[in-house]
């Protein structure tokens, strides 16, 4: 059976890439009931298929028994109804990276959820304090930044906002440990620890390419073999999506008001051309798509 859970019912908002992996992670590692919510029927159907695939792979690799997977699946419920958040103890939001969209959702959920429920956002770069301010529960609001794929990656970055209480942080830390994660804590400044450092490296690699310092392949090989990074920064940018990288760099530049975060013109140019990386078949590299 899955382990204990600090939160009996977890409502995962957004059933995309991150939301489906987070829902699977929570159901497979803890005894919580999990509701996975989306506005799109197609996304919910895709999430159910993705969760099935995650489960099969986890069973094949020996991380879960068949019975544990059957038990986890029974506790995952896909829904298009926000109202089902009413009984949840924890909301983990993983919808699109858009401040206004997220604020609107949190505002609505604030009216639906019980008073004691804790809200967490999986945002990679947006201000937790601003998101919390859209609700009347800023002391029970926190950033809970998972990495992709969430059920495999060891790290969770916790980001208390300006008004997050020590009790909320402690509860979410305990839950993160129940999920088997290593937790780091960052103050709520743009990009936190991981997004800021990751994007600075990607941007600098793009500037190096633009200056003709070397080829994309050699820049990446330098970081893979010289620093033991599993993937070079330009290949990583293609994997993340160049539109997402550009958006985050703009958030860093706006948030700090510092030109050191100005997005490299090559990234802007590739995005304008529709070359967003692996998902479009072309970015810093050509994937033949
Ligand atoms: N992709 C990554 O590697 C990664 C890593 C860490 C954090 N994040 C963050 O996680 C969040 C989600 O990213 P993703 O890659 O899973 O995106 P995604 O586009 O795969 O999924 C987003 C989902 O949200 C749904 N959605 C949009 N508006 C909604 C609303 N109002 N209510 C409910 N559902 C809504 C969409 O239908 C979609 O299914 C973003 O904030 C992103 O920055 C992503």
Strand and helix layout:
Elements lengths: L8 E5 L3 H13 L3 E5 L3 H20 L5 H9 L1 E4 L10 E4 L5 H14 L5 E4 L6 H6 L7 E6 L8 E6 L5 H13 L3 E4 L8 H17 L5 H12 L5 H8 L1 H15 L8 H8 L17
Helix pairs in contact: 1-2, 1-3, 7-9, 7-10, 10-11
Task: Explain this structure.
With 289 residues, this protein is an alpha/beta fold. The chain contains eleven helices and eight strands. It has two domains: 177 residues, Rossmann fold (3-Layer(aba) Sandwich), CATH 3.40.50; 85 residues, N-(1-d-carboxylethyl)-l-norvaline Dehydrogenase, domain 2, CATH 1.10.1040.10. An eight-stranded mixed β-sheet has the order 3-2-1-4-5-6-7-8. The longest helix is centred in the N-terminal third of the chain and has 20 residues. The structure holds nicotinamide-adenine-dinucleotide. The site of nicotinamide-adenine-dinucleotide has 24 residues, from helix 1 and helix 4.
How would you summarize what this structure contains?
The chain contains eleven helices and eight strands.
Helix coverage percent of residues? 40-55%
Low-confidence stretches: none
| Mean pLDDT reading | 97
Q: Output the CATH topology of the largest domain.
A: Rossmann fold
Distance between the termini: 43 Å
CATH architecture of the largest domain: 3-Layer(aba) Sandwich
Q: Give the CA-based shape.
A: globular
Instruction: Give the structural class.
Output: alpha/beta
How many domains comprise the coordinates?
2
CATH superfamily of the largest domain: NAD(P)-binding Rossmann-like Domain
User: Multimeric state of these chains?
Assistant: single chain
How would you spell out the order of helices and strands?
EHEHHEEHEHEEHEHHHHH
Question: What is the CATH first-level class name of the largest domain?
Answer: Alpha Beta
- Estimate the strand proportion: 5-15%
- Report the sheet with the most strands, covering strand number, pairing sense and barrel closure: 8 strands, mixed
Supply Rg: 19 Å
Q: Ions, cofactors, ligands: which are bound?
A: nicotinamide-adenine-dinucleotide
- Sequence of strands across the biggest β-sheet: 3-2-1-4-5-6-7-8
